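Researcher: First entry.
Model:
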Amino acid sequence: MPTRPSSLGPDRQPGNPLLATEAVRDAAVAELCARGLVGEEISVPYRTGWERGKATTRRIHHRTRALVAQQAALLESRPPRAGRVPVFGVERAANTRPPVALGLLFAAAEAHDDGALTALYDFVPDWHVRPASVRRAVADGPAVFLFSNYVWSQQGNLAISAKVKELSPNSLVIHGGPNTPKFPGDREQYFADHPSVDVVVHGEGEATICEVLEVVGGRLDGDLRALGDVAGITFRPRPGQAPVTTAERDRIADLDTLPSPYLTGVFDAWRNASIMVTIESNRGCPYGCTFCDWGSATNSRIRKFDLQRVFDEITWAA
């Protein structure tokens, strides 16, 4: 197998996380070639594809930086907060894809009770909060931080959560998503291991988040005992106390009651960006794969969004 060029530009600099993956893949292909399991006709396209993939990654990172700058300009033009508590949805993926799960939470909260929550909270469309930018996020006082945990984002989310509590102990940190523990024992261990987490949302989060924010009422003082009547969560009543799990919340029967983050302006910062979007056409799955949350989480039942809504979101993305 021909050797790779020794230098491929700035992306070869030490510390680039792509290098570790590249080394593993190169070693795997070399081993397959040595065993005669693949030939040069396979290894050459592999190398070409890898170079294309790296170029694509560089373009995505460039677009992400441009989008962050665009969002910063948008934030500068926003009206004064006027005493409202800022709410941030934290997206950890290093690309320019709008975070549909977090966007749905924002859209639902802004529409809840004819917009009543917007008098208490400022839903900030700044999705690229990082540990280094937390200080700016809490500069005016405690804030609410929403995290959606997946395999690729959970550790980063926990790092940001810890930084939030270090700088602003009364900020409200809420975790949800498929990688957030939901079974007895696992839930309690999660809170024991991560004292920076205040609330964990189980299942669909739109209605739950609205109710949590409504009960909190914009008062961030570390006292969450009033959340005991909010279904579908595990929460820490006060700092240092053992977590409490509330009653299970039913799944949302009519998905069309959920406003679209694309069609309500939540994702307007992405309107002129070169992006890829996630369109949610249904929830649930008829199967029960052990490695996936969907089937077991929804009891293999499928609920669908109205097809016209799906078409309208695709048109927005186009």
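Researcher: Second entry.
Model:
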Amino acid sequence: MEVPHDDYDISIMIKAVKEVQYLLRSKQFSTYSELDKEITETLRGYESLGDGFERFRVHLTKDAAISHDLQRSLSDMNARCEARLKDFEWSQKDQINDMLPFVGSTSRILVHGCGGLLAVAIACAIQERCGVHFYICEGRSASKKYSEGTGVALLERAAQTQEGMRLKDALMKSCTIIPDAGMGAIMSKVDFVVMGAYCVTEHGGLVHSTGSLQIATVASAMKVPFYVLCETFKFTRIFPLSTADLKQPEESNDVPLVEFVPPTMITLVFSEQGIMPPSAVTAEMFRFHTARFAPGKRKELFFKYIEYVKNSCVVVTFSLCSNYSFLLLSISFFVLISLSNLSFVVVVVGFFYLLIVFCVFCFCVSSCDF
């Protein structure tokens, strides 16, 4: 299964939204199909990072398909992009504010990973809770990107945040980088474990860097809560059962660089939509992927078909009226009236007219991507 190989933060989602917004403002579109195709192509490069980009596309274009005014739809899409960007400005702070009540002034917290959200969370917690202390796993792996380990990279990121710059030496005093082999001994001292995520699977499992499964296993055995900080755009429609199901980076040798943590070992997930258990991730993904079969979706498709029937009738009538064959058809029609029963002629002509309309309708439907 294809999975992300890094802990991307909300900046990647902001970049995608701005690209779509630039597309909407810089190009002219004549049909909805053309617009939808361009947006899909723009977001295609982000597919491997999670289903959040597809959910954004659906939210963006949900009303355009049944709208008669494409320019108004484009204006609405621009407004939705602006609203989404404003939400992103506060999403990280919302997640951290949800986590802060779990952090006391004497809390001892074990951390693993090096994501931007995790770095901000550490800096904010130290700023708000004077006596808190973080034990950061060294995170040495075969990855060339973090030659000194993810722990050092996380501490550097935390120091570069606005909160970290204000804290200065207090940040370093409140954090201790521990060797990965000493994690088991430290586990008995900590109040809970928190880590970021490469992605969260459909059934609430975690995909993260080397060492995540080991930490989760020890935490589960010692009854230590295990929390995950993850934005909802990382929720991904995959269903791995173990690390063996995940596609590893090319640089990976015998030791996997990406591991899977089962949902049974995860206590809570902190996202911008609130605090949720792993089972709530399943409900969120199920709600989105079954939306096309919901009553509202059926109503939308019904109006689409009505629109195609109407357009088919217009096309057929216009084609007949603008063609010389219509003159011959009219002459034949009046000849048949004089020689035959009127009702029979009307039925025959009506039948062939509806047959042509049906053929045009089928062509319209087959050429449309629902």
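Model: Note on the second entry: Residues 293-299 have pLDDT under 50 and may be disordered.
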